[in-house]
TrEMBL record:
Record bears the keyword Signal: yes
Keywords tagged on the record: Signal
Full protein name: Glycosyl hydrolase-like 10 domain-containing protein
InterPro entries (alphabetical): Divisome_Glycosyl_Hydrolase (IPR052177), GH (IPR017853), GHL10 (IPR003790)
Coiled coil (UniProt feature): none
Length: 350
């Protein structure tokens, strides 16, 4: 498989603001040689499609800015028109809110809140978390994913560093503490990175992904379960993402480690580490790294992007996913023009 992917956001982007914008973006991506788009469908406590599940539990059918529309359906129609695959991206995963003290979700479901060792709401880098170890929370997120799987003509589903994920500082809520105590006859360590405590919680997330993979495939066996975790082993220590186990157990079809470095030397170093890892070596055909092309004031250079893609190919990696669409359009479409000239030339999505 050759994968030339792009993440499509609703932050710092106007693509999803209208059907016309979506159509223009899909034309642009197809002409540039992309063949998979990963549109956001879940963030900031809202879906970007009309959700009966969200309506029933939280009284909010869709992000209010898309009222009377279905951006996911529009992306699917326009992407199909130009021959591209669509893998909806559940960006926020188990995150409830960003700098809103839990926001809408935890206001309605306070028992879903994650807790740190002091009993406070679990917050990391400004993001406030639901308890990803709790069965009710897991059932909610799984139902959200399966709602999209059942109702839309898609090619897969995408998680990231928030699904399945959980900051390792979490897990100190009463229910999880009791669950651990029942199993080990002691309370969890105060050191949130204690190996046994870390792995026990990571295994709960792996079990969730096993279930998600099984239930997605039961509905549509051909769908791809795609994940974009942080880089291992940082992913395990910080967010309980044990993706060597995910790969070895066959519960992911595509993996996009976020190799978000701001210079080529650092990126190359991560790719070198990646391909040397035994669990990756045996499954390189599933690996398509995430490359950061724009965030905040940062913009990747044309030279860096071309070097990164060339290096990927030199070590047997047959694609990548770029974060995110708007980076292609800056400086008079400079990155897109460069991709059309060399690495993505001859690969129109059509």
């Amino acid at each position: 498989m050759i994968l030339r992917g792009i993440w499509l956001t609703n932050v710092d982007s106007k693509v999803l603001h209208s059907r016309d914008n979506i159509a223009e973006a899909m034309d642009f991506l197809a002409e540039t040689g992309f063949n998979v788009v990963f549109p956001v469908v879940w963030n900031k406590a809202f879906t970007l499609y009309p959700s009966q599940l969200m309506q029933r539990i939280f009284g909010t059918k869709i992000d209010p800015q898309y009222k009377d529309r279905d951006p996911l359906a529009e992306v699917i129609i326009e992407a199909r028109r130009v021959g591209m695959k669509i893998i909806p991206w559940f960006e926020y995963g188990f995150v409830s809110s960003y700098k809103q003290n839990g926001g809408l979700l935890l206001a309605k479901k306070p028992e879903w809140a994650a807790r740190d060792c002091r009993g406070n709401l679990l917050v990391k880098n400004g993001f406030e978390w639901m308890n990803a170890l709790d069965e009710q929370v897991q059932n909610f997120l799984l139902d959200l994913v399966l709602e999209v799987v059942r109702n839309y003509d898609i090619d897969g589903i995408q998680g990231d560093d928030r699904m399945p994920a959980f900051p390792s500082e979490g897990g100190y809520d009463a229910k999880t503490v009791e669950r651990y105590r029942q199993q080990f006859s002691c309370h969890p360590p105060q050191n949130h990175k204690h190996h046994k405590w870390l792995q026990w919680r990571a295994d709960i997330l792996t079990n969730f992904l096993t279930r998600l993979h099984r239930e997605v495939k039961a509905i549509k066996p051909e769908l791809l379960v795609s994940m974009a975790p942080s880089f291992y082993k940082w992913s395990l220590n910080e967010y309980l993402q044990d993706y060597p186990t995910w790969i070895n157990q066959g519960i992911v079809d595509l993996i996009h480690p976020q190799l978000y470095r701001r210079d080529f030397a650092s990126y190359k170093s991560l790719v070198q580490q990646l391909v040397k890892q035994q669990f990756i070596c045996n499954h390189l055909s599933k690996v398509f790294p995430g490359i950061l092309i724009k965030v905040g004031s940062y913009r990747i250079s044309v030279d860096y992007l071309l070097e990164a893609i060339a290096y990927n190919r030199s070590v047997g990696i047959n694609g990548e996913v770029l974060f995110f669409y708007e980076g292609l359009r800056e400086n008079n479409d400079a990155l897109a023009k460069a991709l059309r000239m060399i690495p993505y030339s001859g690969f129109p999505a059509r």
